[in-house]
Write a structure and sequence with these properties.
heterodimer; A: 3 domains; 23% helix; B: alpha+beta; five-stranded antiparallel beta sheet; 4 helices; 10 strands
């Protein structure tokens, strides 16, 4: 018997999960050849690995994550980007021709190129999108997969129902760009709903209904 | 004519002044996630001792030169409220509080996986609301739970309890009265799953056999606290279903 936990079991830090060090997944650690939990959360087996889904966790950047950040400083060779919490990303100023000029306070949507001891480096060039209007909101990074949904299904609902474009960062920042503030606020409140009701079934339908009601209600009553 | 009567801390039949047995702890209450404004928090009550712990971060380390390129740094503040003791305590940090902040920080450094968050800092605040002996161990117990509540990766939860020597007998979790009039006081904290002692101090004298007895008694108490910590953490998951499903 090498696995000591069941799917969806609640574990606490220090709990023995498995005797096989190769099965160490997310939020676990190996000590003396055994796998233990590093955070409190729910067990999920995936790709023959024991993973933990935490209730709350700080964002840890990994390569090819899409992120939304705010430019905080301009340096001779790079921009510094605030990714929320403790993280500062570096964005290198490459060739002048391919790059849009950025100012302090600009919001950008890009990809993590490298994350490690040297810091967090972001992709410049064509991958970078400068967001010059819209609504920027912050959610817990662990809720991001729920907002995206399976193969982007929830995101699809959010954008098609409201007509807004969403830039979802793994770091927990979301930029909503729509053609009217009412629509943007409707999406923002729908995201808040997903955040608080992520454990209840039938969420997609309720999100659809919520956005429709907000947008129509907003136009008739003239809210906002 | 007045007669001098000796006030005993332990009765003939082995009961303590508050009616507990020698190896009995005070009633304990532990809760996780009690404060909304912090990233993680916990509350502990051991008899009359009441302590809140809160965790912020990981965030940028300040001042910048203190940041470590390969790991996070821990900042710990153990503080007693002005109204926590009999007679008012000056609200500033005393010599004792600075020392306890240090020993608690060092204990926590051995359980937090600091390498996960390079160049950042994690702030831990331990606020003693009411003090009645055993505040450093109770504070540490709450702080480790607050770290787990914040979702910061840790090797294990850690729990602590004091053992004392009162009238030649080894007692678990001494109260203020026993602490003051006893012969020895030994706070112990452990990370039970790892089997490592993260904090051990001894005030007073014990023989080596008494020390062994005291340490075993402390381990017993820590086991009880550890289960309560796990229960408090598990309670939060009653309504929680992970993201990315449906």
């Amino acid at each position: 018997m090498s696995i000591h936990v069941r799917e969806r079991e609640v574990v606490t830090p220090g709990q023995l999960l498995s005797d096989d060090p190769r099965s160490a997944g997310a939020y676990t650690y190996v000590y003396n050849g055994k796998v233990y939990a590093a955070v409190a959360g729910i067990i999920q087996f995936r790709d023959s690995k024991v993973n933990i889904l935490p209730a709350k966790s700080p964002y840890k950047p990994s390569e090819s994550d899409n992120v939304v950040g705010i430019i905080t400083d301009l340096k001779p060779s790079h921009y510094e980007v605030d990714l929320g919490w403790h993280l500062v990303g570096f964005l290198h100023t490459a060739g002048k021709r391919t790059r849009t000029r950025l100012q302090i306070g600009d919001v950008v949507y890009t990809r993590v190129k490298y994350s490690g001891v040297r810091g967090v480096f972001l992709e410049g060039g064509r991958e970078l999108v400068k967001i010059d209007r819209g609504l920027l909101i912050r959610v817990s990074p662990v809720k991001i997969p729920r907002i995206i949904g399976k193969k982007g299904s929830m995101l699809q609902v959010l954008s098609s129902e409201s007509g807004c474009k969403l830039y979802v960062g793994r770091n927990g920042l979301i930029a909503i760009v729509g053609d009217s503030p009412e629509k943007e606020f409707a999406v923002a409140s729908a995201i808040r709903m997903i955040e608080s009701e992520s454990h209840l079934p039938g969420l997609t339908e309720r999100v659809t209904h919520h956005i429709r009601k907000k947008i129509i209600g907003g136009e008739i009553v003239g809210e906002g | 004519m007045l007669e001098k009567v000796e006030h005993r801390l332990i009765t003939e039949d082995g009961r303590r002044i508050d009616g507990r047995a020698l190896d009995e702890m005070r009633p304990v209450r532990i809760e996780a996630g009690v404060l909304d404004r912090s990233d993680g928090s916990a509350y502990i009550e051991m008899g009359k001792t009441k302590i809140y712990a809160a965790v912020y971060g990981p965030k940028e380390a300040h001042p910048r030169h203190l940041a470590q390129p390969h790991k996070a740094i821990l900042n710990c503040r153990y503080h007693m409220a002005a109204f926590s003791v009999e007679g008012r305590k000056a609200p500033g940090m005393t010599r004792r509080e600075i020392e306890l902040s240090k020993v608690i920080r060092e204990a926590l450094e051995s359980i937090v996986i600091l390498e996960e968050f390079p160049r950042s800092a994690i702030d831990i605040f331990i606020e003693v609301i009411q003090a009645d002996a055993g505040t450093r161990t109770a504070g540490l117990t709450a702080a480790s739970l607050a770290l787990a509540d914040a979702g910061i990766p840790i090797l294990d939860l850690c729990a602590g309890i004091a053992v004392g020597k009162v009238e030649g007998r080894i007692v678990l979790d001494p109260s203020e009265e026993e602490d003051k009039r006893g012969e020895a006081d030994m706070p112990v904290a452990m990370a039970p799953r790892l089997g490592s002692i993260v904090l051990l101090q001894l005030n007073g004298r014990m023989t080596s056999s008494e020390f062994t007895e005291a340490l075993n008694l402390a381990k017993k108490g820590i086991g009880v606290l550890y289960e309560l910590q796990r229960k408090a953490l598990g309670k939060k998951f009653a309504t929680f279903t992970p993201a990315g499903e449906e």
